[in-house]
């Protein structure tokens, strides 16, 4: 009897200690619940080394590695040519016009307009010739631009 009482007490002590440790550990989900606020005026834009005329301010994630969100600028007249992306891309116009062309024709994504480009979809994109484009962009994977000939 004595051995089982000692074993029970030891097990209870381990459970209590473990539960205290868990209760005191920082919660990972607390970081995810923090509000994030940014404006394009406050964002730090970095010029693209691969595409002159493009600059991005990363809001979430890493465009070189996976899912991400950015404020992106196209200089006036920038033309990315016909290309595809591996990941789906979502765009909301903020200023100027994001000029989008595919087999269905041209669309000008202006402030407040929304565009979804599915991964693998052939299209051309660029900035308005006079105003360029400033837009919010989100992608389900890393950013790539695969030229189509």
Helices and strands in order:
Layout: H1 2-24, H2 29-32, E1 46-47, E2 54-61, E3 68-74, E4 79-84, E5 89-96, E6 98-102, E7 105-109, E8 114-117, E9 123-127, E10 133-139, E11 146-147
Antiparallel strand pairs: 1-2, 2-3, 3-10, 4-9, 4-11, 5-8, 5-10, 6-7, 6-9
Give a brief rundown of this model.
The chain is 18% helix and 40% strand. It is α+β, with helices and mostly antiparallel strands and 149 residues long.
Q: Which secondary-structure class do the elements indicate?
A: alpha+beta
Q: How many E strands?
A: 11
Overall geometry comes to globular
Distance linking N and C termini = 83 Å
The run of helices and strands is HHEEEEEEEEEEE
What can you see in these coordinates?
By secondary structure, this protein is an alpha+beta fold. It is built from two helices and eleven strands. It has a six-stranded antiparallel beta sheet with strand order 1-2-3-10-5-8, with no helix packed on it. A five-stranded antiparallel beta sheet has the order 7-6-9-4-11, with no helix packed on it. The longest helix has 23 residues, at 2-24.
Based on the model shown, name its key terms.
about 150 residues, alpha+beta, 6-stranded antiparallel β-sheet, 2 helices, about 20% helix
């Amino acid at each position: 009897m004595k051995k089982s009482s000692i074993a029970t007490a030891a097990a209870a002590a381990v459970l209590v200690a473990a539960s205290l440790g868990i209760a005191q550990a920082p919660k990972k989900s607390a970081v995810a619940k923090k509000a994030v606020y940014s404006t394009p005026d406050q964002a730090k834009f970095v010029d693209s080394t691969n595409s002159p005329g493009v600059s991005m301010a990363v809001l979430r994630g890493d465009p070189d590695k996976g899912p991400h969100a950015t404020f992106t600028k196209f200089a006036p007249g920038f033309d990315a040519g016909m290309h595809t992306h591996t990941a789906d891309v979502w765009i909301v116009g903020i200023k100027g016009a994001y000029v989008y062309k595919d087999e269905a024709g041209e669309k000008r994504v202006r402030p407040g307009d929304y565009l979804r480009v599915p991964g693998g979809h052939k299209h051309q994109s660029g900035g308005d010739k006079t105003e360029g484009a400033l837009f919010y962009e989100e992608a389900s994977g890393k950013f790539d631009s695969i030229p189509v000939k």
